[in-house]
Design a protein that fits this description.
About 50% of the residues lie in helices and about 15% in strands. It is built from 7 helices and 4 strands. It has a 4-stranded antiparallel β-sheet with strand order 2-3-1-4. α5 runs antiparallel to α6. It is elongated and about 80 Å long.
């Protein structure tokens, strides 16, 4: 896979790349068979190449730092903080239900804050992108799992916007920013290689 990725990176320096579904393998072992496949779906390839010309995919995953995010919730939500302060010196066995209630309140606040951060990040980056794909999060501390299709010329502005967000929110979360990638999230080519 690493070799495949390195080849794609080199090709992308000069050409537009259309990723094809993983494990697409032609039955043909000669150029004529491959050319028949390309000729059959020429229109589809041509349209997609035009759409992807001069663009790339950049990936962004944002993960919350658990302790600082919970601390920010305690600071921001007076009702949670005051209930916590009332229970802090009381025996755990006598305040079990109240502590469960705090846990529910914190979970709800975390959900709300995560959505607010996600919207802030997307509101900042989406205007720079041609398209955005939001993928499923994994784990409750993931705020955003996304891919952005951007014009090559917009990459410096996009990089700067990510850096500004990181400077502003980096104490609460980690930004995992990767690219340049083939547009995996924006091209879904299925090629029928049988019977051609």
């Amino acid at each position: 896979m690493i070799t495949h990725e390195k080849v794609l990176e080199e090709v992308m320096k000069q050409f537009t790349v259309l990723p094809v579904r993983f494990s697409t393998i032609s039955e043909h072992d000669d150029e004529a068979g491959i050319l028949r496949i390309l000729e059959k779906d020429y229109q589809k390839f041509d349209e997609m190449l035009d759409k992807m010309e001069g663009k790339k995919e950049l990936g962004l995953k944002v993960l919350a730092h658990e302790a600082p995010v919970y601390e920010s919730i305690i600071e921001k939500y007076d009702n949670i903080r005051s209930l916590r302060d009332k229970l802090i010196n009381l025996p755990v066995d006598k305040t079990h239900y109240q502590r469960m209630k705090i846990g529910e309140m914190v979970a709800e606040a975390l959900k709300k804050e995560t959505e607010n951060y996600k919207n802030l990040i997307l509101d900042t980056l989406t205007p720079i992108a041609d398209d955005v794909k939001i993928n499923d999060n994994y784990g409750e501390m993931m705020i955003l799992n996304s891919a952005f299709l951007i014009k090559n010329t917009a990459e410096p502005a996009f990089d700067e916007a990510v850096n500004i967000l990181d400077a502003k929110l980096g104490n609460l979360m980690t930004f995992k920013y990767v690219g340049t990638l083939p547009p995996y999230n924006f091209v879904n080519l299925v090629i029928n290689t049988k019977g051609i």
